[in-house]
């Protein structure tokens, strides 16, 4: 039972990591879409483009806004999944602690009791191994708390980033069309 709980704990931790990576990726995509949207808005406002070109830009801008909305929704979904995995991880950790403590609180007094426990499929862990496992578990918990603290720190999303090559070329083309270059 303990090994199954440990396995569940590892699987849940892996799921949590995967969801965390997806959330980070979605945040980056959302930030890029926001910058693209701002760039297009600035290009539309500052240029004297014909009506047809303006309509195309506004259409593209609308598509970008829809994409941003979809990314936000997907990000929210991933956040909910992440929170679910996090609570499942916590629940598994509590079950593991409870299981470990209940096994160690009442060690069998007679060899017959020990044999019955082993027949039920419950592993009996020597005291030294239990202490080693408990130490590893406490270290893992500490790492988890530190990781959660890092996750809760505000991300530096307001840092300006360099334009992508296609953004630079679009920017240059827009200025050439309006005669600034």
TrEMBL record:
GO terms for biological process: centrosome localization; centrosome-templated microtubule nucleation; microtubule anchoring at centrosome. It is found in: Cytoplasm, Cytoskeleton, Microtubule organizing center, Centrosome. Residues 75-95 are annotated as: Disordered. GO terms for cellular component: centriole; ciliary transition fiber; mitotic spindle pole; pericentriolar material. Keywords: Cytoplasm, Cytoskeleton, Phosphoprotein. This is Golgin subfamily A conserved domain-containing protein. It comes from Micrurus spixii (Amazon coral snake).
